[in-house]
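Summary for the steering committee. The consortium agreed at its last meeting that each partner would contribute one worked example illustrating the joint modelling workflow. Our contribution is presented below. We chose a case with several input lines so that the handling of multiple components could be demonstrated. No manual editing was applied between input and output; the record is shown as generated.
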Amino acid sequence: MRGGLHLGSALATALAIVTAALVIVGLLSAESTEVAAGSDIVLQIVSITIALAVLVGIWNLISVHVGRLIRTRKGWIYSLITLLSAVAVTAVYVMDETASWTGELEGEKLSPRVFEAVQVSIESALAGLIVFFLTYAIYRLLYKRFTWTSILFMVAVAIVLLGWLPLEDDSLVDLREWLMTVPVLAGSRGLLIGIGLGTVIVGIRALTGYDRALREP
Amino acid sequence: MSDNSNFDDMPLPDWLQGGSFEDDEKAKKPPPKQDETPEVLPDWLTADAAPSDEPLDAGDFTSSGAGYGEDGVWREEEELAEPELELPSLEDLTGGVGDTKAQGADYVPDWFLGLEEQNLEEAPDWVQSTSSVSIDDLTDTSAFEAEVPSFESLGMSSQPETTAAQDEEVPDWFASRDAVPDLDFDAAVEEEEEPDWFAGEVEAEPLPDLSMAEEDVLEDVFSDLDLDEEEDIFTFAESDEVEEADAFYTMGGVEDEVTPVEEKPVFQAPQADLSWLDEIERGSSPAIEEDVEEEEFALPELSEEAELAESEFDFLGEAEEGELDFATELDLEDLGFGDEAIEEEAEDVGVFDFGFDIDSKEMEDQLDTASDESLKVERGGTQKLIKDMQTSSLDIEQLLAFEAEQEGAPPPEERGLTALPHTSSLELASEDLFSGLDEDLFESLDPPVGGEGPSLSIAGEDDLDLFGVREQGTPEPRPETAAPQLQPDWIADLRPDVPVNIRAGNLEFEMEQTKIADMPEALRALRERSAALSALSQAEQTQQASPASGPLAGIVGGLGVTEIAEDLESDFQVGAALRVAESQRRQIEFLESALSVVRREAAARREGQVVIPEAVKVRTRARPKLDRIVVSLILLALLIAPFITDGLHLDAFEAPGSDRLLADQRAVHEAVDTLEAGDYVLISFDYGPTAARELNPLAEAVIRDIIKQGGIPLLTGISPLGVLNSRSVLNDLAQDETLLTALNRDDALQPREDYVALNYIPGEAVGIRSLTRSELAGTTLFEVDSEGEETGLNIGELHNEDVAFIVVIGETLDDARRWAEQLNDDDIQKYLLTTAAAEPLIQAYVDDDLAYQGYLAGYRDTYSYNIARNPEALTTDPDSDFDLPNSSLGRWYSLTMGILAVLGFMVLGLIVNLVRRRR
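What follows is the complete predicted structure of the assembly.
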């Protein structure tokens, strides 16, 4: 609501300002001071809260898919698979921790194997497709467009890739090293500086109560 | 009967547009039944006048020859305007009111179009003059809202059938009276004393054979008189009105030379008091008004040549339609009834007089001066008859006898004819004229033509049968009469100032009417066009059945709206005669396809089917691109081939040795070399499964080296997935034979002894910062491992003394930045293991004393690191029956082939582009 002041928002803003001020003062203070200790307590609370958020997320995931499965909404089969997977992984983890495996699996830890065999393989395969897309993209780029920028792009890529290879001629390696330490480093630092400025602005907004998350209930 | 075909060519006034004369339709109507009482209409409505071919002015209804002008002054022929009688047909005026014959579905009467919106102030004078009341009163629908009385209640055996001539001339507002009540024929008798209604009652009737004897002429004269007229004329003559017979006779066309009459005929149509309509509806005798507008009875002018001969027969033809109308409009008192002087005079004249005095000399002169030489009159007989008439001693029976004598026909009694009773005028004035008539009289009036039922006309040409003319001559076919009909309700709504109730099904609402003058020009043009369409298609419509349902059920004679619409729908062909662009054609086709769907659904709904919208599944199958397939297949082949054959293990791209490690990479194993047995190395797995295939070998190589150096890796991460990755790596290393061989151990690596698998660090950046600032955070992280077992680590706040260095394994810049910025201990050395993609971005955090002292990136550094630090790891290949190259070399050359392929496609694309540009 515009122009109105909500008590909850005011309290949240005040609490955020006080906490942020406490943390920043504590971080700038010596570790042995009480302010720093208070700041550390606040940071510990944040860490615990974030850890609990994982549990909340797991609970939300299960409840959503159980609801879809009960109501048999569209895609309920995927919800069923998700729930079965969650139950199976949890069961495997419990079996691992309780050393319940018998026979050939006795004493084995199956959780890392399941993770490696299923999740790592799938996600790695998906990531491996990127090379195909990038290769075709650069081919189409030069096939369709031939400008000075595209030439510059092509030369940079060629230098970096060829410089990555252990060629006998070190000229490309040196050239690649120069690219990595001068232009690429400059760009990376500029990117990091921008990130730092953004972080400061967010901090100031939080300290002054201008952050939208604090103003709107 | 007159030929009304000329009406088809007549331009009708605007307020009556939409009608057409339908002689053909009238001819198809069945003849009336004998037992039906003929419908009696006002004379001016039933007059079967033949219009002239000239355009008519509806407002000018003055008669030809002498007659009353619009100002009510009697004028002679020369003074009057050209007689342009325009008598709309009954179809026009009534629109087939009550006609239940089929006329097609969704029929709308043509005359209905816009008529309800007409302002009666624009109506002709003769319409306005018919009432002394205001236009609003004239159009008051309250007069029409009364229920239509049944014919039984009106004293009729059945509903009378109207002749076509009557139908043509009945205005719509009169059509609301579909039944004629009991009429006061006494009043009719009186009003028929008025000769002016004969004025101009001329029809374009074929000329009869006038070469006859004088008595034939007289016979013709009286034969044109309706029996009732005869009663009226001969019975209720007033002494002071006898002279009007001259004018009457003159107007009848007996003489072509009109003698000016100073005294105007007394008889006039009633002044526009429409109360008589209500009286008709109630079945009571109407009041008779004094003021009568003669325009109402004015008839068109005939040519002088045919005037005499035609008028002898035609003007009386009007009588059959006018007499009863007069009867409904005249007041007895106006005609002298109730006046003692008149009654006494009537008694003196005789019980049955002719109603007027005829001067024998004048009559004879008139007859002698007839222009037609073929008119042979036996003056002796005529004089005798006239004298008898003058003495008022001749009654109808005598007249009939005289007629029979002249014709040699049997007396009326033998022919079943019975004249009116011999009674006094007062008696007749006080009772129904027809009460004294024999039923057979009406039967005798029926013409033999067709032999089907009597004519509805009471007087007029049918009267000739009474005198034997029709029996001897060739009978003229009579038009078929219309079937009795009930008027629809909307007739009562024909008032422009009254909202119309429109009902459709269960819905009803009022709609304000728009006067035609206020209508937009486009609507008026549409109305005229509709009228034209109606005129063209009316013949077809008459053959069609009336809609059985809907708001126009039972209504015929209207426009075939549905048919026209269907024709348009079915015959409409887009682009048949138009030139449209291709884009427009596609749009039209799209719209047609959409309309077809709507029509199908509508048709299905009409048939009661449940319309289930079809689920439109748009399958967008991407067209396979050949170049993409070629690129992918070539790249895939180059990536796989080094694992299968060593043919692609090119010497030019030999695997890098330890000497290929740069300073940043060398810093890592140099840090490992500084480890002592039992030193803890904190390794944070901050990458996910997507980078696991790239970073797991790198992490394994570094951990392998650390373990070989006696260090104890403390595996953790900032996310649960990172911890899982660490477990996966350690599980492999813990049982790796080469590593165990290098360690000279037989058993696998043991957790909490050879390595420690910790939990993940919650809070990401906050958690990392807390490691060096909060003892609680450190204690929580290092106290127990992921299995919940105590690690035995005595680490609170993380300091340089607790760990030898920290290895951060991350796949993105954020992973590297997080540890570099948040770990608030400058003395703790950090090394970074990252992907080849993130290598350029992490350069800002390398070679910095506050960040990472060294890094390893991608598989190239992994291979180099293993070559330099873990050569045993590269020699281990799984047992296989196939002679495959070393997997580590195959992996290296696979990457090399991939890089070369990318560069090759770049060059290929560039070449193709250049070729295309040249072409």
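Chain A touches chain B through 62 residues (CB under 8 Å). The first helix of chain A runs from residue 7 to 28.
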